[in-house]
Amino acid sequence: MNKLILRLGALSVLVFLLLAACAVEEKPALPVEALSVEMSEFKFQPANLSVYAGKEISLTLFNQGAVRHDFVILKRGVAAHTPFDPEAQKDAILFSASVEPQTGGNYGFTLPEAGTYEVICTVQGHLEAGMKARLTAVAP
Ligand SMILES: [Cu+2]
């Protein structure tokens, strides 16, 4: 009985330490099932996104800018190299939505696995200008 209590005590200390370790990590906010992202020249706002892996995520996009932008999620582990050619590198693309200036739309996507995914705008010159974001998928 005492051994069990000791084990439970040790386990709760471990859980507490794990939670504390997560808390100090750079925080991309808590994972969500609905994202709202604004696009403009040349950024995504917010640029640090966190969602659940394996769940349908609802995405609302609005383009505040004066030119077309797109929201392209690359497959896990793919880093965007400039210049990014969406035709030549379409195997690297997981999800893509293109938004005309001063318009918006609702979309849905699912990230298959936990991990980090890059989001870029593939309109010529925009990635070069820094138009990218980081999307973290967390196991539910
Ligand atoms: Cu753009």
Task: Provide structural commentary.
There is one protein chain. This protein is of the alpha+beta class. The chain has one domain: Sandwich (Immunoglobulin-like). The protein is built from 1 helix and 9 strands; from the N terminus they run αβββββββββ. The strands form 2 sheets. Strands 3-9-8-5-6 form a 5-stranded mixed beta sheet, with no helix packed on it. The longest helix has 23 residues. The two termini are 34 Å apart. About 9% of the residues have low confidence. It binds copper (II) ion. The site of copper (II) ion has 6 residues, from loops.
Q: Helices, strands, pairings?
A:
Elements (H helix, E strand, L loop, with lengths): L1 H23 L9 E7 L2 E3 L2 E5 L3 E8 L5 E6 L18 E7 L4 E7 L4 E6 L11 E7 L2
Parallel strand pairs: 1-4, 3-9
Antiparallel strand pairs: 1-2, 4-7, 5-6, 5-8, 8-9
- The share of residues in extended strands comes to 35-45%
Any low-confidence stretches, pLDDT <50, length ≥5? 13-25
Q: Describe the largest sheet.
A: 5 strands, mixed
Order of SSEs: HEEEEEEEEE
State Rg. Answer: 19 Å
Helix content: 10-25%
CATH fold type: Immunoglobulin-like
Q: Could you write a compact summary of the structure shown?
A:
The protein is an alpha+beta fold and 140 residues long. It is built from one helix and nine strands.
What distinguishing features does this structure have?
140 residues; alpha+beta; Immunoglobulin-like; five-stranded mixed beta sheet; four-stranded mixed beta sheet; 1 helix; 40% strand; globular; binds copper (II) ion
